[in-house]
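Pipeline run #58 for the internal structure catalog. This entry was flagged by the ingest filter as a single-chain record with no existing model, so it goes straight to prediction. Upstream metadata was stripped on purpose; only the residue string is passed forward. Reviewer on rotation: M.T. Logging verbosity set to normal.
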Amino acid sequence: MVKTRKEAVIVGAGAIGTRTAGLLTRAGASVRVIDRDFIDDRNLERQKLYNKNDVGKAKALVVAERLGIEGVVDDVNANSIGRLLGKPDVVLDCTDNMAARFLLNDYCLANGVLWVYAGAVQDRGIVMAFSPEGKPCLRCLIPREPGPLETCDTVGIDNETASRVAALQTEHALKGSNGGTLIDISHEEITKTDVPPRKNCPACAQKKYEYLERTETIVALCAKDAYHMRLNKRLDLPSLDKTLSGKFKTKLFDGVLHVWPDARRISLFASGRAIVEAKDEKEARSRLARFVGV
């Protein structure tokens, strides 16, 4: 049976991801968006698909409803990536951290899938497509995880930059083309670039897919003063809401339950995850155990 529609999986439903999802949908692609987070007030200015009535809702489900596509509320990690991504025609990176991008790089290399990396802050952006054949790959461009990076949450992103990056990412995805583009909106510069393969690249040259073997259960979230935690079991949110609402302020949406034991929020996801506002990892674990008991 011949496929008539390009199957695309987008990881991340932020400023770029929501725009890319809209462009691919209008181009006739079959689109699935995966995001682990919920909408907060800071998202509204730069993520035009959302409005104030969406605050607290799961990003992926709002995108799915608005665009008529598939939305999955889950965390893409070494354990879940095969189940969540499968083997589409193209994977589009719209995340905000290099560990997630290196994981996508390893998965797409190991499974022969075209993927398109995109990143932008303020008025600068980059889009880079990597072919199913695997050389070069992202780690030829960026050999190792850098230190803390500027992100949309920490320094913002211009709407024009987000739209230009999304348009270029969509173009690469639909054409299946390799290579990359650097964008500098303030100086009106768009530069084509190519990345040469590195002979000692651990991923595409040595085929060491180390990010597919990582099993972290807690990760600090950029600019949120919060920690993302995997609980390794599904959660019955209506039942938890019934229990916790007698003690604390709660708000239940489809797929996510927000709990305020104090001024700081704990957000629980049906897939078995939590986002806990805390000053450090130890406090995050303590707050989840003490207030929620999971």
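catalog note: The first strand starts at residue 7 and ends at 11.
catalog note: The chain has a mean pLDDT of 88.
status: ready for reviewer M.T.
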